[in-house]
C-alpha cells in the first residue's frame, strides 16, 4: 500500500511537508511506524530540515548513518547543493540518476537539484520516468511554470487529475496553474483551493495563508489579501524565513497596488532577505534603468 | 397514520370539547367555545390563556370575532346569542329569538349584522347596533347547522341536516337597510316589483339555489374566498365541492376519505387546497383541482368538531374532544443561501432565484424545483457552492430527499434542471469545494459525497443526531436534542462538544470566526472551535439571524429585530409588523425574506449597537463620530456606560452636577470633581473628594477639601507631611485664635517650636510638663524661671533620664509648592480625542493662515472644485503631432525575435504584456524599460528619465508575486494583472499602481492640502509626483483619459504657481531690484489657474504685499479680483478696505512688469510673462509654456520632457 495514501501512515507528515508545516514534520513521531516507513519518514524529515535551511545538520547526520541507499544519497545530493557545494552535489547525482532513475525518491530529489541548477531538460527527462508519483507531477508542473510552458503544465495537471483527483498535491498543481493562467480558473479553482487549505484547521499554515493572500491580491480583493498576508506574517512555528520573505514581497506588491508606495514591508525585506528574488530583481532593474536612461542622456548631450 | 412531517403544530390547549373557534384578524388570539359553556381567549403565540367568559348556560357552539371592533359574538344551547366586549371583558347584550340550540354565529364583514343558524330550522340576521332581528330565513326542514356570509357578495350559504345546502340572496335586505332616506319612490317601486316574494311574502332574503347531493345531514358549508365555489361536509362522510354561476349551481366533485361523519370544512385562504375535519379523528387536506388527498393528520383519541383558518397568515385551528390545536400546513421559512453579494433562495413557486444585495435587484427565476419532493411541500434548505455554481436542496417530502443541481450561468427563466443528482436524506450541506455531507436520521449515518453523488466516506454521528450543519471548512456541526458537536471530517473525530439544546439553525459570521446557534428561544454564540461566547434567552420564538460586517448579530423574533454583541449585550433594533427571515445586514439595511418568499429591505438604526460595539472594541474615534453625528444621549446609554466601567465617557454626556461628581470620582477626574463639589458645596462631597484626592496624592485638592471641612488637625498634618512650614505656622496661629490648646500643642510639635510649647504649658499651669519640656530641650533659663515660679528647687525634682530632644525633620524639598507626582488620571483616548478634536481644528485654521503671514484668517477650506481650464488643449496636441502608433509594430518585431531565440521555454507573461499594449506603463511593467522609454520619447518627448526612476521601479515591482512551490525550490513567479477576468492571452495586461482614482482622491488632495497649509515644498514634490505618475500610467476608458489630462493640467498649474512663490520667498527684499522682482513674482503667483480658494490666497498675498510697498494700482487690481471671486467674507471685507484706500491715488510707486489688463502666461523657466501672440515653446507632456529660447531644454515642470519636442501625445488607454 502506498504509505502516502489517505489511509497510509505517512499521510500526515507528507501533507505537512507540502503545506509548508516543516516543524510539524520534524515533530512527527516515527516510533510507531513500520520499519519500511520509518526510513521514508526520515527522508521527509531531512527534506523539511533542508527546506528550513538546515542542510549542514542533514549532512552531518547523513555521514554518520553512512548513506548507502539511493534514497539517502539523493537526500545528501540535495543537502550538498543547498549548502553551496554545488559541483560536489552534481557529481554525486550523475551516477545516481543513471543507475537508480526508477526510484521515486531519487526522481523527486535529484529532479529538485537539477531544477535548482536550472538544468530543466535533464530534470524533466528524469521525472518523466515516474510511475504514478504525484510529487514528480508537482515538480514537473513547477518546472514547466518556471520555463513559462503553461500549456505543458496544464497538460500535466489534467493528466494527473484523471487518476488522482482530490489529492492535496494535485490540488496544489491545479492552483499553481490557475494562478498563472488567471481569469476564471484563478477565481474559481486556485482561490477556492487555497481558501480551503487556509481555513481548514489541519492545513492552515503561514504558507497556505500566504498563498490565499496572493490569490486574493491577484483577484484585486485587496482588503482580504491584506488580512490574509497579515495573518501569514504573524509569528508562528510555520513562518520560515523563505515564506516570510515571500509574504513580505507580496505585502510590497499589495501596498503598491493600493497606491501606498512600497510601504514598510519593502524596507524589512531588503534588510532581512537581501538574497530574495524580488530584492535582486529590483536591484538589477534599477541598474537596467540607469543604463537605459544613460543612453538618452548621451543622446541629449550629443544634440 | 403518522403525523405528516409538514403539519407543524404551533399551539395546543387542553380543555373540554371545543365546538367553535375564531381567529382574531390582527392579534395572535383565538376564541374557543367549549361544550362546557365556557368561552376561552388564548394567545396562541405565547401559549397563555388571556381570559374566560362564562355566561352561557350549556354548550357554546358558535363564536366569531368582529373584524375591526373589540367585539365578539357567541351562540349557545341556551338559545341565546351574546355579544361581548373583550376590552371591558363582559357581555354587552343578548339577542333572544331562537327557539332551539344556536349552532353558528358570524359577523358580516362590513355591515353591523350577525348571522346565526339554529336547530329551530331558521337562519336569522340581527343588527347588533340596534340589537334587533332584521331577517328570519326559513326553508330548511331540519336543524340549520351552519350559515355563512359570502366574503363579498350579498349571499349566504347554509347547511342543514335536511341534507341540503342552500344559497340565499340577501341583496334585498341590504337595500332595505342601507340609506333608506336616499331612496326615491321609483326605487321603492322597482324593488317591490323586481323582488319576487317567497312563500311567506318575504322579499329580504330569497333562496337562490338549493344544492342536493349529500345523502345524510350536512354539518358545515363554506364559500371560497375568491372563486364561486362552495365546500360542504356531511354525515355521509363526504366533502363535496360545488360551483355556482349567476343563474345556477352544481356539484363539481366529492372528496372521499373520511370514514366517520365529517364535521367541518373550508378552503385554504391562499392555496388551492381544501381542509376538512371529522369524527374519524382526522384532519384531511385535499387538492382543490384534483380532489385528491394531499395529506392527513390523525389524532389518537379525539374527534374533530370544527376547523377555522386565519384570514391573513398561514395558520389553522381545529377543535376536538379535548381542546384545540393551532397549526401550519407548511414551513414558511424560504430556503436560502448567501454568497458574497448574492442571495439564492426558493420562492413560493419553487423557483430558485438570485437577489443581488448591492444592486437590490432580483433576478428572474434561474431554475425550477417543481419536481423536487411533493408539489405541496417547499424545499427546506439550500446550500450553495460558488466554486461549482451548484446548489444542494433538501425537501422533507418522502422522509427527506436532496437534490444537487448546477445553476445556469444566466437567468434564462425557470428551466428544469437537467443534471440533477438525487438521494435520500433530511439534511445536505456542502462541506468543501467538491464535497457535501448528507445526513439520514433513519440510518443515523452521514455520507460524505463527491459531486458525482458517490459516497467517499461514511461517518457514524453520535446517537440521536437530528441535523447537520456546515461547521467551517472540512468540519460539520452535528446537533442532537441536547448538544452540538463539532466534527472534523478528515480526521474522522469529534473536536468539541457543547451542551446547547434544540439547535435549529446555525449562522456563521462573515469572517467565519463565530457562529450563532439558534434554538427556539435561545441564541448561543460560539467560536469556530465551538467555545461558548455568550448566550441569551428570548420568551418569544427566535426566527432568524444574520451577522453585520462589524460582528454584531442581528436576530429576528416573531415581532422584533434585535441585536446582540459578542459579549451578550443585547437590545431591540425595531419592531416588525410581520415575521421576516433575516438573511443579511449591511450598514443601515437589513435584508430579509418574508413569508411570501419575497426579498425585502428594512431600514434600521444601527447607532446604538454600533456605539456599544465601538465601546467594547475601544474604537474611540468611531464613538466620537457617532456622538457627533447622532443624538445618542439618554439615561440608558449613561447607565450602560457606567455599568460597563466607562465613567469617563459617560461623563461627557451628563449635565446633572451630582451625577457628574459621582462619575468624575469614579474615573478619577479630579478637576471635574472639584468643579462640581464647589458648585454643590456639601460636606459629604468634600469628604469623598478629600479621600479620593489623597489617594491620588493631589494634596492641593486635599488641602482645599480639609479647609472646606474645617478639619484643622488633618490640615496641620498635611502641611507637616508636605513640609509647608509657613502654613503650619499659620495653623498654629489659628489654633491660638481658636483657643484650642491641643491644636496649638500639636502644631508646635510639628514645627519643632519648643518655646511655644513651654509657654503654652505654662499658661495652662502644667508646670511639670513645661519643666520637662524645657529641660529636655536644654533651655536652662526657662527651667530656672519655672522653678522660681513654682517654688521648687532642682533637687526636689527627679526626672527620668532623657536623651536628646527630638526635632521634626526639616523639609529638604519644598514639595508643597507642587503636587506630588499625581496618579495618572484616566484620561481616556476618547477624552483626548474630544479635546484634540477641538485643538486640531484650531491648528488647521492656524496652518492655513500663518504661512502667508500677512493674511489673517484666510478661508481656504472651500474644498476642491475642479475647473477644467486646459481641457481644450488636448485636441490641438493631437492634431499637431499625429504620429500614429507605428511604434507598436516595431516593438512587436523585437519580441518575436527574442522568443524564437529561446526555443526550450515559452514566453513569459511579462513578454505578453509588452506585446499586447502600446502603453508605456505596460512596457515598464513588463520590465522592458528600453521600449518604454522609446514610447515615452515619441509620445511626450521625454528625454531626461532619471526623475522617472521611482515610478518605473514602482510599476515593475507591483507586477510579480512569489508563491512558495515545492519544498526546496525557489518560489513560483506569478504575474499580477489589472485585467482580472480576461481569459484571452492576447488581451491580458499588467497592474499599474496609482491608478487615476487613487491619484484624484489621494495624491491630488494631498497637494491641495499642502497648498492650503502653505507647505509649498511638499506640495511641489506632490504635484511633480502626480505628473510622473500620470506620465507612466494606464487607464480603463476614454472618459478617464480626459480626467487624466485634466489632472495633468491642474498639477502643472500648481507646480508653476508654487515654484513662482518659492522663488519669491528665496529672494531677499533688500535693494530696489530685488523688491521689484519680488513684487512681480507675487503678481505672477496670481496668474496660474488654481482653485478659486487657493487663488484667493495668492491674490490676497499679492494685494497686501503691493499695498505695503505703495504699489496702489496693482493692489487695487488684486483687490478687485478678490472681490469678484467672492468667497470668504473676511477676505472680501479686507479687499474692500484696501480698494477704498487705493482708489484715492491709484499709482504704483515701483514700476513692475505686470500689466493687469494684458493677457499673458508665465514662462515656467524664467518666471516672466509670455504675452499672447509672442513666440513660445511648450512642454509636450504638461503643456507648460516657455520663451522660445528655452526650446530643447528639459521642462521645468515635469523635469522629464524636452521643451518644444515633437510628440504624438500621451497614450494611457489602448482601445
Features:
heterodimer, A: mainly alpha, 74% helix, globular, B: 1215 residues, alpha+beta, Methylamine Dehydrogenase, Chain H, four-stranded antiparallel β-sheet
What does this structure look like?
The complex is a heterodimer of chains A (303) and B (1215). In chain A, helix 12 (183-199) runs antiparallel to helix 13 (206-218). With 303 residues, chain A is mostly helical. Chain A has a domain at 204-303. Chain A has helices spanning 11-18, 22-26, 35-51, 55-64, 70-82, 86-99, 104-116, 120-127, 134-146, 150-163, 168-181, 183-199, 206-218, 222-233, 241-257, 263-272, 277-302. Chain B has 1215 residues and is an alpha+beta fold. Among the domains of chain B are: 46-178 and 194-302, 7 Propeller (Methylamine Dehydrogenase, Chain H), CATH 2.130.10.10; 336-538, Methylamine Dehydrogenase, Chain H (7 Propeller). Chain B contains 30 helices and 62 strands. In chain B, strands 29, 30, 31, 32 and 33 form a five-stranded antiparallel beta sheet that branches. A four-stranded antiparallel beta sheet of chain B has the order 1-28-27-26, with no helix packed on it. In chain B, helix 24 (996-1012) packs antiparallel against helix 25. Classes of the chains: A mainly alpha (303), B alpha+beta (1215). At the A-B interface, helix 3, helix 7, helix 9, helix 11 and helix 12 of A face helix 22, helix 23, strand 57, strand 58 and helix 24 of B.
Amino acid at each position: 500500500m502506498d504509505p502516502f495514501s489517505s489511509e497510509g501512515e505517512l499521510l500526515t507528515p507528507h501533507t505537512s511537508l507540502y503545506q509548508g508545516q516543516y516543524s510539524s514534520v520534524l515533530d512527527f513521531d516515527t516510533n510507531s511506524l513500520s520499519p519500511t516507513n520509518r526510513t521514508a519518514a526520515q527522508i521527509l524529515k531531512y527534506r523539511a530540515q533542508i527546506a528550513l535551511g538546515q542542510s549542514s545538520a542533514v549532512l552531518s547526520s547523513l555521514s554518520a548513518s553512512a548513506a548507502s541507499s539511493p534514497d539517502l544519497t539523493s537526500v545528501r545530493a540535495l543537502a550538498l547543493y543547498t549548502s553551496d557545494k554545488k559541483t560536489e552535489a552534481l557529481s554525486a547525482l550523475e551516477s545516481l540518476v543513471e543507475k537508480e532513475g526508477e526510484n521515486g525518491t531519487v526522481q523527486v530529489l535529484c529532479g529538485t537539484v537539477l531544477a535548482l541548477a536550472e538544468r530543466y531538460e535533464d530534470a524533466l527527462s528524469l521525472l518523466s520516468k515516474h510511475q504514478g508519483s504525484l510529487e514528480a507531477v508537482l515538480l514537473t508542473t513547477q518546472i514547466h511554470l518556471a520555463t513559462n510552458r503553461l500549456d505543458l503544465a496544464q497538460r500535466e495537471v489534467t493528466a494527473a487529475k484523471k487518476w488522482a483527483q482530490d489529492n492535496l498535491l494535485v490540488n496544489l498543481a491545479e492552483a499553481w496553474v490557475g494562478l498563472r493562467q488567471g481569469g476564471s480558473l484563478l477565481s474559481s479553482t486556485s482561490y477556492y483551493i487555497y481558501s480551503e487549505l487556509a481555513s481548514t484547521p489541519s492545513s492552515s499554515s503561514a504558507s497556505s495563508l500566504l498563498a490565499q493572500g496572493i490569490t486574493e491580491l491577484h483577484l484585486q480583493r485587496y482588503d482580504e489579501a491584506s488580512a490574509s498576508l497579515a495573518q501569514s506574517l504573524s509569528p508562528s512555528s510555520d513562518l520560515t524565513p523563505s515564506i516570510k520573505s515571500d509574504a513580505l514581497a507580496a505585502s510590497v506588491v499589495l501596498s503598491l497596488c493600493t497606491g501606498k508606495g512600497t510601504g514598510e514591508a519593502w524596507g524589512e525585506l531588503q534588510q532581512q532577505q537581501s538574497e530574495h528574488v524580488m530584492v535582486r530583481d529590483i536591484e538589477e532593474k534599477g541598474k537596467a534603468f540607469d543604463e537605459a536612461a544613460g543612453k538618452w542622456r548621451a543622446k541629449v548631450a550629443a544634440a | 397514520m403518522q403525523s405528516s412531517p409538514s403539519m407543524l403544530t404551533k399551539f395546543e390547549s387542553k380543555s373540554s370539547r371545543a365546538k367553535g373557534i375564531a381567529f382574531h384578524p390582527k392579534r395572535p388570539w383565538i376564541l374557543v367555545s367549549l361544550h362546557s359553556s365556557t368561552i376561552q381567549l388564548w394567545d396562541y403565540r405565547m401559549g397563555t390563556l388571556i381570559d374566560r367568559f362564562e355566561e352561557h348556560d350549556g354548550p357554546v357552539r358558535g363564536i366569531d370575532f368582529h373584524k375591526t371592533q373589540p367585539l365578539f359574538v357567541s351562540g349557545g344551547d341556551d338559545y341565546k346569542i351574546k355579544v361581548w366586549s373583550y376590552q371591558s371583558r363582559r357581555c354587552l347584550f343578548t339577542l333572544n329569538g331562537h327557539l332551539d340550540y344556536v349552532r353558528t354565529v358570524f359577523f358580516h364583514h362590513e355591515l353591523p349584522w350577525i348571522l346565526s343558524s339554529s336547530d329551530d330550522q331558521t337562519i336569522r340576521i340581527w343588527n347588533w347596533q340596534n340589537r334587533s332581528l332584521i331577517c328570519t330565513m326559513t326553508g330548511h326542514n331540519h336543524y340549520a347547522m351552519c350559515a355563512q356570509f359570502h366574503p363579498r357578495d350579498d349571499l349566504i350559504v347554509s347547511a342543514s341536516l335536511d341534507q341540503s345546502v342552500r344559497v340565499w340572496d340577501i341583496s334585498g335586505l341590504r337595500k332595505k337597510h342601507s340609506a333608506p332616506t336616499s331612496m326615491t319612490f321609483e326605487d321603492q317601486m322597482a324593488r317591490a316589483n323586481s323582488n319576487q316574494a317567497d312563500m311567506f311574502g318575504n322579499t329580504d332574503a330569497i333562496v337562490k339555489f338549493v344544492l342536493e347531493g349529500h345523502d345524510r345531514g350536512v354539518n358545515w358549508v363554506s364559500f371560497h374566498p375568491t372563486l364561486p365555489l362552495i365546500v360542504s361536509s356531511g354525515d355521509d362522510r363526504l366533502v363535496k365541492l360545488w360551483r355556482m354561476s349567476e343563474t345556477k349551481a352544481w356539484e363539481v366533485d366529492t372528496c372521499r376519505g373520511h370514514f366517520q361523519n365529517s364535521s367541518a370544512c373550508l378552503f385554504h385562504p391562499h392555496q388551492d387546497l381544501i381542509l376538512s375535519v371529522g369524527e374519524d379523528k382526522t384532519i384531511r387536506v385535499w387538492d382543490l383541482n384534483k380532489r385528491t388527498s394531499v395529506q392527513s393528520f390523525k389524532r389518537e383519541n379525539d374527534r374533530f368538531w370544527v376547523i377555522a383558518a386565519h384570514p391573513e397568515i398561514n395558520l389553522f385551528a381545529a377543535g376536538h374532544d379535548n381542546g384545540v390545536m393551532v397549526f401550519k400546513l407548511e414551513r414558511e421559512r424560504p430556503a436560502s443561501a448567501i454568497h458574497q453579494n448574492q442571495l439564492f433562495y426558493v420562492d413560493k413557486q419553487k423557483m430558485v432565484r438570485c437577489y443581488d444585495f448591492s444592486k437590490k435587484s432580483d433576478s428572474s427565476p434561474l431554475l425550477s424545483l417543481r419536481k423536487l419532493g411533493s408539489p405541496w411541500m417547499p424545499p427546506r434548505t439550500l446550500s450553495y457552492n460558488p466554486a461549482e455554481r451548484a446548489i444542494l436542496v433538501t425537501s422533507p417530502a418522502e422522509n427527506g430527499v436532496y437534490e444537487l443541481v448546477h445553476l445556469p450561468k444566466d437567468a434564462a427563466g425557470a428551466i428544469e434542471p437537467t443534471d440533477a443528482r438525487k438521494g435520500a436524506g433530511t439534511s445536505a450541506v456542502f462541506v468543501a469545494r467538491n464535497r457535501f455531507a448528507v445526513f439520514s436520521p433513519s440510518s443515523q449515518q452521514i455520507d460524505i459525497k463527491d459531486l458525482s453523488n458517490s459516497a467517499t466516506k461514511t461517518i457514524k454521528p453520535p446517537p440521536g443526531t437530528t441535523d447537520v450543519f456546515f461547521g467551517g471548512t472540512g468540519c460539520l456541526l452535528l446537533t442532537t436534542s441536547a448538544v452540538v458537536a463539532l466534527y472534523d471530517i478528515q480526521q474522522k473525530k469529534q473536536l468539541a462538544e457543547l451542551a446547547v439544546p434544540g439547535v435549529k439553525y446555525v449562522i456563521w459570521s462573515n469572517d467565519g470566526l463565530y457562529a450563532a446557534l439558534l434554538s427556539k428561544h435561545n441564541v448561543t454564540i460560539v467560536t469556530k472551535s465551538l467555545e461558548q461566547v455568550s448566550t441569551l434567552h428570548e420568551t418569544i420564538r427566535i426566527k432568524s439571524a444574520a451577522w453585520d460586517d462589524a460582528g454584531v448579530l442581528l436576530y429576528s423574533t416573531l415581532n422584533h429585530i434585535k441585536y446582540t454583541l459578542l459579549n451578550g449585550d443585547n437590545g431591540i433594533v425595531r419592531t416588525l409588523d410581520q415575521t421576516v427571515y433575516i438573511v443579511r445586514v449591511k450598514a443601515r439595511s437589513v435584508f430579509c425574506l418574508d413569508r411570501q418568499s419575497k426579498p425585502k429591505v428594512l431600514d434600521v438604526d444601527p447607532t446604538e449597537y454600533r456605539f456599544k460595539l465601538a465601546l467594547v472594541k475601544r474604537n474611540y474615534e468611531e464613538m466620537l463620530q457617532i456622538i457627533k453625528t447622532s443624538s445618542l444621549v439618554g439615561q440608558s446609554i449613561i447607565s450602560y456606560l457606567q455599568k460597563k466601567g466607562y465613567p469617563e465617557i459617560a461623563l461627557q454626556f451628563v449635565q446633572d452636577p451630582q451625577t457628574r461628581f459621582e462619575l468624575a470620582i469614579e474615573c478619577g477626574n479630579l478637576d471635574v470633581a472639584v468643579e462640581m463639589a464647589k458648585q454643590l458645596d456639601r460636606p459629604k462631597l468634600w469628604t469623598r473628594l478629600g479621600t479620593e484626592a489623597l489617594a491620588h496624592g493631589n494634596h492641593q485638592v486635599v488641602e482645599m477639601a480639609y479647609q472646606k471641612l474645617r478639619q484643622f488637625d488633618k490640615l496641620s498634618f498635611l502641611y507637616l507631611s508636605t513640609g509647608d512650614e509657613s502654613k503650619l505656622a499659620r495653623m498654629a496661629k489659628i489654633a491660638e485664635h481658636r483657643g484650642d490648646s491641643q491644636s496649638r500643642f500639636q502644631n508646635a510639635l510639628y514645627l519643632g517650636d519648643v518655646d511655644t510649647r513651654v509657654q503654652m504649658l505654662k499658661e495652662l499651669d502644667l508646670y511639670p510638663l513645661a519643666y520637662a519640656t524645657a529641660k529636655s530641650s536644654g533651655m536652662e533659663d526657662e527651667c530656672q524661671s519655672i522653678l522660681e515660679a513654682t517654688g521648687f528647687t532642682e533637687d526636689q525634682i527627679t526626672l527620668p533620664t532623657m536623651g536628646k530632644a527630638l526635632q521634626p525633620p526639616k523639609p529638604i524639598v519644598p514639595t508643597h509648592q507642587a503636587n506630588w507626582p499625581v496618579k495618572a488620571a484616566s484620561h481616556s483616548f476618547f477624552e483626548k480625542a474630544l479635546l484634540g478634536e477641538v485643538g486640531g481644528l484650531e491648528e488647521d485654521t492656524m496652518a492655513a493662515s500663518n504661512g502667508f503671514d500677512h493674511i489673517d484668517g484666510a478661508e481656504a477650506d472651500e474644498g476642491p472644485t475642479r475647473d477644467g481650464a486646459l481641457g481644450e488643449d488636448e485636441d490641438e496636441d493631437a492634431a499637431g503631432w499625429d504620429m500614429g502608433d507605428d511604434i507598436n509594430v516595431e516593438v512587436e518585431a523585437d519580441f518575436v525575435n527574442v522568443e524564437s531565440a529561446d526555443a526550450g521555454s515559452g514566453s513569459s507573461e511579462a513578454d505578453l504584456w509588452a506585446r499586447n499594449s502600446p502603453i508605456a506603463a505596460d512596457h515598464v511593467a513588463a520590465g522592458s524599460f528600453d521600449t518604454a522609454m522609446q514610447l515615452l520619447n515619441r509620445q511626450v518627448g521625454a528625454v531626461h528619465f532619471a526623475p522617472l526612476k521611482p515610478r518605473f521601479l514602482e510599476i515593475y515591482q507591483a507586477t510579480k508575486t512569489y508563491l512558495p512551490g515545492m519544498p526546496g525550490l525557489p518560489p513560483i513567479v506569478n504575474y499580477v494583472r489589472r485585467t482580472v477576468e480576461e481569459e484571452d492571452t492576447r488581451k491580458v495586461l499588467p497592474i499599474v499602481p496609482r491608478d487615476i482614482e487613487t491619484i484624484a482622491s489621494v495624491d491630488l488632495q494631498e497637494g491641495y492640502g499642502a497648498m492650503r497649509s502653505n507647505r509649498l515644498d511638499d506640495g511641489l514634490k506632490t504635484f511633480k509626483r502626480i505628473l510622473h505618475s500620470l506620465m507612466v500610467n494606464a487607464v480603463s476608458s476614454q472618459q478617464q483619459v480626459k480626467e487624466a489630462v485634466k489632472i495633468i493640467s491642474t498639477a502643472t498649474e500648481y507646480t508653476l504657481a508654487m515654484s513662482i512663490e518659492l522663488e519669491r520667498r528665496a529672494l531677499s527684499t533688500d535693494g530696489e531690484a530685488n523688491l521689484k522682482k519680488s513684487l512681480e513674482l507675487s503678481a505672477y503667483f496670481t496668474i496660474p489657474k488654481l482653485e478659486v480658494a487657493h487663488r484667493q490666497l495668492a491674490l490676497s498675498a499679492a494685494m497686501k504685499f503691493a499695498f505695503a510697498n505703495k504699489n496702489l494700482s496693482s493692489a487695487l487690481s488684486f483687490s478687485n479680483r478678490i472681490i469678484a471671486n467672492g468667497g470668504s467674507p473676511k477676505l472680501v471685507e479686507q479687499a474692500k478696505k484696501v480698494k477704498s484706500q487705493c482708489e484715492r491715488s491709484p499709482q504704483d510707486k515701483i514700476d513692475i512688469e505686470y500689466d493687469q489688463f494684458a493677457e499673458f502666461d508665465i514662462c515656467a523657466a524664467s518666471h516672466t510673462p509670455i504675452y499672447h501672440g509672442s513666440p513660445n515653446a511648450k512642454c509636450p507632456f504638461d503643456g507648460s509654456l516657455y520663451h522660445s529660447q528655452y526650446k530643447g531644454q528639459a521642462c521645468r515642470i515635469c523635469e522629464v520632457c524636452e521643451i518644444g519636442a515633437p510628440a504624438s501625445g500621451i497614450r494611457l488607454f489602448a482601445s
